[in-house]
Write a structure and sequence with these properties.
The protein has about 270 residues and is an alpha/beta fold. The protein has a single domain, classed as Alpha-Beta Barrel (TIM Barrel), CATH 3.20.20.70. It contains ten helices and eight strands. Strands 1-2-3-4-5-6-7-8 form an eight-stranded parallel β-barrel, surrounded by five helices. Helix 7 runs parallel beside helix 8. The two termini are about 15 Å apart. One of its GO terms (molecular function) is isomerase activity. Keywords: Cytoplasm, Gluconeogenesis, Glycolysis, Isomerase. Homodimer. Its EC number is 5.3.1.1.
Length: about 270
């Protein structure tokens, strides 16, 4: 596995306000006390609803855990009723924004070009996009790799220089009983990594996998090809704090070097 491993969580809208606050209160001290989180071997981000952001920021204050938003406006501040701007998210200490999730594309007709516009707004205000991409149909690994690399290019068209977190989430695996096959995940993530590495504007970018992700998956992916996948993007599995911590423990076992020690990644 790579020098550091990323573990992200999106809470979608499963939690009401009180439950979210209780979850933050339980998980925050455990993540703060985790040695691999503290020294940067495991990089964690949590994405609650907009109304839960302030409580999340307060709960994770003083820890390396990053707080994100589940969407961002493609527009600047102004007469755009109902939107939440990148500038305001940055103002309230959000550092990552989830963009282009399959649900946004399906339910709200968001296109690749809308995704690129939102990613542009995010990067312009110092936010790191968690750029969700994935094929809708169950393709073979080679075809899926090609489709995702092409989608990535469109989603990054015109986006200013800056790192991104690419979350590969094949649509057919989201909410499924099992994740995509290990070799399939590795093949697609390897291709995405190669595309990012070939673009100097995306230095420091990360490729993670989401879609029925859970315990044991990181180790299996590392067994197929070490370093091909930089981490996981979790959904409902992370609602159980013990389950989330088990994935963080697994990530810690695979991280090779602390980014906060000599020889580590920045």
């Amino acid at each position: 596995m790579s020098a550091s491993v990323t573990v992200g969580v999106s809470l979608k809208t499963y939690f009401g306000h009180a439950r979210a606050r209780a979850w933050f209160a339980e998980i925050a001290p455990r993540l703060r006390a985790h040695p691999a989180v503290a020294d940067g071997r495991v990089r964690v981000f949590v994405i609650p609803t907009y109304l839960q952001i302030a409580d999340a920021v307060a709960a994770f204050a003083g820890s390396p855990v990053r707080v994100g938003a589940q969407d961002v406006s493609a527009y600047p501040a102004g007469a755009f009723t109902g939107e939440v701007t990148a500038s305001e998210l940055a103002e309230v200490s959000v550092t990552v924004v989830e963009i282009g999730h399959a649900e946004r594309r399906r339910l709200f007709d968001e296109t690749d070009h809308v995704t690129a516009a939102k990613a542009t707004a995010a990067v312009e205000h110092g936010l790191t996009p968690v750029l969700c991409i994935g094929e809708a149909e169950h393709l073979g690994a080679s075809a899926a790799a090609l489709a995702n690399v092409e989608q990535l290019a469109v989603n990054l068209e015109g986006v200013p220089t800056g790192p991104v977190i690419v979350a590969y989430e094949p649509v057919w695996a989201i909410g499924a009983a099992e994740p995509a096959p290990d070799a399939h995940i590795v093949a697609v993530c390897r291709a995405l990594r190669a595309a990012l590495d070939a673009d100097p504007a995306r230095a420091g970018s990360t490729v993670i996998y989401g879609g029925a992700a859970g315990p044991g998956l990181l180790a299996r992916l590392d067994g197929v090809e070490s370093g091909a996948v930089d981490g996981l993007f979790l959904g409902r599995f992370a609602h159980d704090p013990d389950a989330l911590l088990s994935v963080v423990d697994e990530a810690a076992a695979l991280a090779t070097v602390s980014p906060l020690t000599p020889g580590g990644a920045p």
